[in-house]
């Protein structure tokens, strides 16, 4: 395949992503191409398969099971589009391909003239088939497209970043997710789970004999399983497996671990039996309760219910997960977040629902009343704001909308006032179009808001306690977004903040 150096060939359609700090070589792209086997069957070749290898070649399997290497240039454009639109490649992968090959970067007359290259068209197809984009109103889609400078690769980059915001992200050390509790940290690395810190009530998951781990120690499960998502609170944690099963460990005195047969600490991960047959996609842990989101978009809760945070219309505790009866027409829930005693839930139509403690205006209704059932935040609905992700802190909450704007509400003394759109984050250097990755806020005393920008700098707003890493006093406040200079040289992928510590993946 014909390739050229980046400095000698860069099609105009590929220049739109300058500033992403791409390296000239793209080993991670090649690895994904090598690892992701793309099988395409067409009407004319129903018994043929195509494999996309690290050398960007296609191995054509004939009916007689004889292999013949075929150059990418020999393939019809339709097949190239099928490969690029398979969903196996990221927006960065597409850009790497466009920058290094005339086949991907050139125009072949297959698609409307508004697309400058095969990659542009593939990015467009991936966007329109994306679950988040498909649920957006037309004006919201147009708003995102305009904010991205009319570039589909940028739109795709944003949509894929939203997916990673509460999930595993790709880092230099592999696929990871981090989450922090009060005095501990949990880490998923290549589907295995690790913990370190103080083991209050068995929250580290390594048995009653473990009181503290100063380095990461692997957590073993009853049977081999791949961990895909984790959530940690002060004294308990919950883990989602690739199968959809959920395990929990830690303090179960309030039955927040979902095991109604005991209120004693759970020192090793234990399967939540009540959720058998209900595969989950996400868990969120509050101070003494847990929220479960199933793959079908149903929400279950268990544990303490002092403020109605279980969402069942009462204040009765639940020792086992119980499904919330959502109002008619509420739609499919796609993401959840739990504060100390309140819950935020995002529906597929972009509406945000909240319930639980109304303290500090964290529910977003402009009043401090507790809500015992899910209630839509009307400010977003009235303004036609399509929310894609939320995060729940101790005394404030944050939302990311479909155009990349960040909104905060709650107690305002640390720079997080009620329903304020933070424009400064998206107007910072090299970052005029959207906030890339969106992550959770800190719980308890140290209350900063962290966000990762387009060029993967870390932006911070909040209160000192040395967690912000600025040269300020412990009580100093950062009331407007500022880039964390100490991490400016790193490509930050994910952030999580505990009571007295912050963990960053890059």
UniProtKB/TrEMBL annotation:
Q: Name it.
A: Regulator of chromosome condensation family protein
The organism encoding this protein is Prunus dulcis (Almond)
Tell me which PROSITE patterns the record gives.
CYTOCHROME_P450, RCC1_2, RCC1_3
Cross-referenced PANTHER family: BTK-BINDING PROTEIN-RELATED, INHIBITOR OF BRUTON TYROSINE KINASE
Pfam families in the record: WD40_RLD
> InterPro entries, from UniProt?
Cyt_P450_CS, RCC1-like_dom, RCC1/BLIP-II, Reg_chr_condens, Signaling_Regulatory_Domain
Cross-referenced SUPFAM superfamilies: RCC1/BLIP-II (SSF50985)
Q: Which residues form the RCC1-like domain?
A: 173-504
Q: Which molecular function terms from Gene Ontology are attached?
A: iron ion binding; oxidoreductase activity, acting on paired donors, with incorporation or reduction of molecular oxygen
From the broadest rank down, the organism's phylogenetic lineage runs:
Eukaryota, Viridiplantae, Streptophyta, Embryophyta, Tracheophyta
Q: Where are the RCC repeats?
A: 244-296, 297-349, 350-403
| UniProt entry keywords in alphabetical sequence | Repeat
